[in-house]
Amino acid sequence: ALIDEILGILHPKALEVFVLATWIGALLGMSTRIALAFKPNKSAWYNALQKPWFTPPRALFPPVWTTLYVLMGWSSWRVWREDRHRSLGYLNLIPFAIQLGFNFAWVP
To answer: Most buried among 5, 24, 60, 103, by the most CB within 10 A?
Structure first.
């Protein structure tokens, strides 16, 4: 694959660590962009909503979303690692990438 050719000078473990850091970094960057879109001064509409009693406190959102995006990065890296030597292995990541695109586009 192209990334393997470009980064072919790296030791295989170093390549895996690099790709893992790239996946997690990209997803954390996306989550930061989403979080910035919902700063308190921009979320008056959310504060005005009548929420059910079981709505979690706002302070819970940053650590939960950060954990979710780190786990999504780790999971996508595992798919990449397992499928990169198959001829069409990267196709497994296409639905994930499309979903991320929709997730990112949904942010105002």
So the answer is: 24
